[in-house]
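From: lab user (bench 3)
To: helpdesk
Subject: output format question, protein + iron/sulfur cluster

Hello, I'm new to running complex predictions and I'm not sure whether the block I got back is the full result or only part of it. Here's what I submitted:
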Amino acid sequence: MVEKLTKKLEQKKLFHNKFKDWFMSNLIEKGFRKRKNSIYQRGSNEPFTISRSKFSNFIDCPRCFYLDRVKGLKEPSMPGWALNTAVDDLLKKEFDRHRQDKTPHPIMKEYNLNFIPYDHPDIDKWRQSLSSGISYLDKETNLILKGGIDDVWFNLDTEELVVADYKAQSSSTPVETKSYLESKFHQGYKRQMDIYVHILRQMGFKVADLTYFMVCNGEKTYDSFDNKINFITKLVPYKTDTSWVAPKIKEMKETLERESIPEHNENCEACVYLYCGSKI
Ligand code: SF4
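Helpdesk reply: Thanks, we reran it on our side. This is the complete output you should expect:
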């Protein structure tokens, strides 16, 4: 009787272990990238493409960037920002009408800017961050840096390109340049502009230092929804600084070539969460 029971328990344990192995290998299969060209091969001479968002990830945490680009660990996917995308899409249509007519958009007149939307045969491609975007090959590192822009305007006085980024939000605080640019949540936005200006310059364009965030603030002070959100739109000028971009690209290349995984960012809440979770 005891023998029979022990055998049954052993069989149960075996089944449990097998199931655990299957479950873990399934998890591992899901957690890593399969597309070879999104994983960096150390010592390779082939140009390797890095998107603006991956470059930003590197700046935030070289460890996460390395795990992703060198080890192929997939970031958890996130749902899109549907309302923000809707505002972007409508603004693009609006600006495209003025681009075609070579006329200033009303916001340009409101801010006394002698601008028109810039008309370039590749403007549509420039706006597609996933399939094309703006890009250049950094010869020193053999990395291709690319990103999708929201819009480019043209300064008729200086004949320079002006990078513009649409931002939809809903805040109870009125949009003011100083507080907007100083907000800890907007530091990445400024970095994004620095990178776009850098890329366009490397593509051979004359680009102004001054860029604009077109901030569309959904007002919450109304008494009811009535199937619409009223927006107040402001331009927030931002003077870019591209001096840090080239040295950072070099640093990123050195990280890609590392044999060991970089240290984590000790201010990252996600890492604290994952670490504590693994201890339960
Ligand atoms: S600290 Fe950890 S979770 Fe946070 S970004 Fe870096 S590796 Fe990822």
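A quick orientation on your result: Residues 58 and 251 are 9 Å apart (CA to CA). Let us know if anything else is unclear.
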